[in-house]
Amino acid sequence: MGAEAPQWLFSSFVDALQEIGATASRAECEAEARDLVARWSAPERTAHSFRHLINVLAHIDELSASVHDPDILRVAAWYHGAILDRTPCTARDELDPSATASNCPDLTRSRLEGLGVSEDVITRVLELILTISRHEAARDDTDAQVLVDADLARLADSPRDFKKYCENLREEYHAVDDLTYFTARRNAIRRLLARETVYHTTAAQEWEDTARANLEVELLRLEERIRALNPDANLDDTDDDDAPVVPAVRKSPAVDPGTRADEDSLPPAETVIIKRKQLKKNQAAAAEETPTTTGVLPVLAPVEEDAVPPVAGDDDDASSLETAIDALNVP
C-alpha cells in the first residue's frame, strides 16, 4: 500500500479551484480532489499515474513565468487524466481527436459546473484538455504551450527512467496486440521527431536534446520489434500512408506575452499574436478556513513509483490521457 497523498496536494487543488472562481465550499473542493487522486491512483495506471499528475503540476510551476492563468492550467492538468479509455481505435484515418477525448471533458464539465465554476472558465479548461490530447498547442496560446510541454516533460527523463516509462506504457495498453501497438507507437514518435522542436516554450528548450535522444532510441527499438513480427514491413518509406509525418513548424520570433496586437490590423509575416482572453469568473465564496498553501507545489524529491494513495478509482473509469491507440498519441 502506498503512502497517503500529502495534504498540501489537496490544498493546492482547492486553492486553484477558488482562484478560477469555484463557489463551492473548501470541503466540497477537497472531496473533489480526493476523488481525482483516487482515479489517478487506480492500479491499472502504470504510465498515466498519480506520479505523472504530480510531475505535470510541478512542471507547470517550473514553466509558469509566461503564463496568464496558471490556476486554470493546474485544474486542467488534474482533470485531463480523470478517465483513461484504453479501448484501441483501429480506424486511424477516421479518428476525430475530439471524440476520443469526449468522456473526460464530459466528466470535467459536470464536476466543474457542480463546483460553481463559470461557463467561460469551463470552456477554457475543456479546450486545454483537448490540446493535451493532441500534444500540439496553437502558436498564439502560450498557456496551452506550457501545459503541453509540462505533459511532455517526461520525454526528457534519464534514459533509464524513460525506458521504464515505455515499459509501463506498454503494460497500460496490454489489451492491444504487439504489432498494432508497436506500429502505432512508432507513428506517434515519428510525428514528434518531425517537428522543428518537440517543446513549444523557450524555458523547455533545455529538455530538447535529451527528449530527442530518448525518442530516437525508442524508435529504433520499435522498428526492430516490428521487423521481427513482420519481416515484410516497409519502415524505410517515411511518406507511406501508414505513418503520416507532421511537417516541421517554423519558429517565430519571441513575443512578449504581455503585449496585445490591435485586433483590427493584420500581423506581418511570422508575427504571432499572443492569445489573452479575459475569462468571466464567478465570485468565489468566502473561505471557511485559512488556506494552507498557494496553488504552487512545493519542491519535492522524486516520487517513488509506489508512493501513491491507497485508493483506486471505479473499475469502469479506465484513464484519459490521449486515448487514440491507433496513433498512440501518448508520449
Poorly predicted regions are 88-102, 238-275, 305-328
The count of strands amounts to 0
Our measurement of the CA-to-CA distance between the termini, rounded to an integer number of angstroms, reads 28 Å
Overall pLDDT level:
77
Pattern of helices and strands: HHHHHHHHHHH
User: How is the quaternary structure best described?
Assistant: single chain
Structural class label: mainly alpha
The number of helical runs is 11
In brief:
It contains 11 helices and no strands.
Could you characterize what this model shows?
With 331 residues, the chain is an all-alpha fold. Helices cover 45% and strands 0% of the residues. Helix 6 packs antiparallel against helix 7 (119-134). The longest helix has 22 residues, at 208-229.
Keywords:
331 residues, mainly alpha, 45% helix
Itemize the secondary structure elements and their pairings:
Elements (H helix, E strand, L loop, with lengths): L6 H13 L6 H15 L9 H13 L7 H11 L16 H4 L2 H12 L4 H16 L7 H11 L6 H14 L5 H17 L13 H22 L102
Helix pairs in contact: 1-2, 1-4, 3-4, 3-8, 4-7, 6-7, 10-11
